[in-house]
Amino acid sequence: MARYSDSVCKLCRREGDKLFLKGERCFSPKCAFERRSYPGGQHGKQAQFRRKESDFALQLRAKQKARRVYGVFERQFRRYFDRAQRQTGLTGLNLLIMLESRLDNVVYRLGLADSRPQARQLVQHGHFQVNGSKVNLPSFLVKAGNVISVRESSRRGLHFKDLSQQLDGARVPAWLSLDATNLVGTVVSAPSRDHVDVTLSEQLIVEFYSR
Q1: What does the pLDDT read at residue 176?
Q2: Does the pLDDT of residue 91 top 80, yes or no?
Q3: Can you point out the beta strands (E) in 84-135?
Q4: End-to-end C-alpha distance for the chain, whole angstroms
Q5: 194 pLDDT more than 50
């Protein structure tokens, strides 16, 4: 499967906002966005002084930002949108709920990974199980009542060895619960719009695909 392999800091600079793709580094002075918040490239610095963006440009940027936050390529993102459109309720809200329900995002929101890209890698390497069964698909959509846990054979690994101590007292979203001692998370309910931890405009995304 293809995967973005360039510097992820370029993505934050292009979107003009922190996407928190590098974990702790995003909160340190080493964060590239803190030093250069304008887009990369020869004319990136001048981009912030250009004329007002068109409606299409705003819609495109909203869609690209959501894709990049959750690490989803265009074809899969479009499938999510089509599926959200077929469901009852607001299409944009349905889309965000699906993105939030991805296993790699849940692992990140539980604090079991420092960033969504790291969570995706850990899931792909088979370190997690859902309801006792190994799952290595980052796009797996969890449901209320699902239990996500670190596999017993992975607990001795460098990443998980002292993680329970770091997570002691950690806060997780209200739709999730965490047993830090045993590195076990539970999906209490489906996520709501208020639980999305980044600034996204789902209405602009709907407008983009409805042109």
Answers
A1: 97
A2: yes
A3: 128-130, 133-134
A4: 29
A5: yes
Give, as one character, the DSSP assignment of residue 89: S
For 204, the token pair is 């602009």
Distances (CA, A) of 201 to 19, 59, 71, 79, 207: 14, 9, 17, 18, 10
Q: How confident is the model at residue 1 (pLDDT cuts 50, 70, 90)?
A: very low
* Separation between Cα atoms, residue 80 and residue 18, nearest integer Å: 24
Taking 90 as the threshold, does the pLDDT of residue 197 lie above it?
A: no
Q: What type of residue is 184? A: V
pLDDT band at 164 (very low <50, low <70, confident <90, very high): confident
User: Would you list the DSSP string of 141-202?
Assistant: BP-TT-EEEE-GGGTTSTTTTTHHHHHTT----TTEEEETTTTEEEE-S---GGG--S---H
Range 43-57 burial, b when 16+ CB lie within 10 A, else e: eeeeeeeeeeeeeee
Ordered by where they begin, the domains of the chain are 9-99+197-209 (1.10.1050.10), 102-190 (3.10.290.10)
